[in-house]
Design brief:
The protein is mostly beta strands. The protein is 8% helix and 24% strand. The protein has a seven-stranded mixed β-sheet with strand order 8-9-10-11-13-15-17, with no helix packed on it. The chain has a five-stranded parallel β-sheet with strand order 1-2-4-6-7, covered by helices on one side. A hairpin with a 2-residue loop joins β8 and β9. It is elongated, with a radius of gyration of 21 Å.
């Protein structure tokens, strides 16, 4: 279904009923690109009492996808957000982040999240990383901050990788323009191996958090931040071509700060780190690499 015009709280409430299966909803495709979110019309979702609407319940805000607007909307599979929307809530799907959405399209004007104005742009759309059935992220070509390629979310000039959808089904080909892997970029991504382009120099906080990779080739990475490989429990091998050990951010005080795992997971100290010939001693004396099984390649 494609809709246009102004949508207030009453309109959103009606749409929600069409997307919630327990209410008889069967709406699987919703194109809101030509619609505008406006204030007024009453509440669209009860805050505390599911059977009664109150003054403190969720209401619409102009040009914003607000908190819980799509919570429990389990029928919808493809969602195209309005081009007029400038921000989305990190909790637009509620607090479980569990949705059935396979495809989502970011409109022309979206530039971040209302919940994370104090964070970098890459972290402000982390809600997309948590969508556990998402296969593709698309972006309107005129969006000034974001872009997409083959269903993957980047910044405009594709120097920063923001998110690979958890259920991404295509062959992942990263552009040679890429310099930074963003925070939570590969959250729960299920693939056995990856090789980063030689252009990548920086790994942001939790870049490979909960990823399923067994082998990761970091190429010529120069900087890493805290918890980059946190809970990457399947990780067995890391390859680095840089003879100089990548520098860790100031908040990294130990190897565990970068490689911590669940208690039942294999010890991260068993990870094999393959480094260029003649550089083993440097890596062995540098946090966070020093406690890995270092092998000169």
């Amino acid at each position: 279904m494609k809709i246009s015009g102004n949508l207030n709280g009453t309109d959103v409430r009606c749409l929600r009923d069409m997307m919630i299966t327990e209410n008889g909803g069967k709406l699987m495709y919703l194109d809101m690109s030509d619609a505008s979110i406006v204030e007024g019309g009453g509440t669209f979702y009860p805050h505390n009492n599911p059977g009664k609407y109150n003054d403190d319940d969720y209401v619409t805000q102009k040009d914003i996808i607000t908190e819980c607007m799509f919570e429990k909307c389990d029928a919808i599979k493809e969602l195209i957000l309005p081009n007029s929307v400038i921000k989305i809530s990190h909790y637009m799907f509620g607090y479980s982040w569990t949705t059935q959405i396979r495809s989502i399209t970011i409109g022309r004007s979206i530039n971040g999240s209302i919940d994370h104005d104090d964070l970098d742009v890459q972290e402000s759309l982390d809600v997309l990383a948590w969508m556990d059935n998402l296969e593709e992220i698309n972006v309107h070509p005129d969006n000034p901050k974001y872009s997409s390629e083959n269903g993957v979310l980047y910044n405009k000039d594709k120097t920063i990788l923001y998110h690979v959808p958890q259920k991404f089904q295509r062959n992942l080909s990263l552009p040679n323009s890429l310099t930074t892997i963003g925070g939570s970029a590969f959250l729960y991504y299920n693939a056995s191996s990856i090789k980063l382009p030689s252009s990548v120099k920086k790994l942001r906080n939790r870049a490979f958090w909960h990823s399923q990779f067994i082998t990761i080739d970091l190429g010529y990475v120069e900087e890493i931040e805290n918890q980059v490989f946190m809970n990457s429990d399947n990780l067995q091998e890391i390859y680095i071509s840089n003879p100089t050990p990548p520098v860790a951010s100031s908040d990294v005080k130990s190897c565990e700060d970068v490689f911590s795992r669940y208690y039942s997971a294999p010890d991260f100290r068993n990870i094999k780190l393959y480094v260029p010939k003649g550089s083993k001693e440097k890596y062995a004396s540098t946090i966070p690499w020093s406690e890995l099984n270092i092998i000169e390649n």
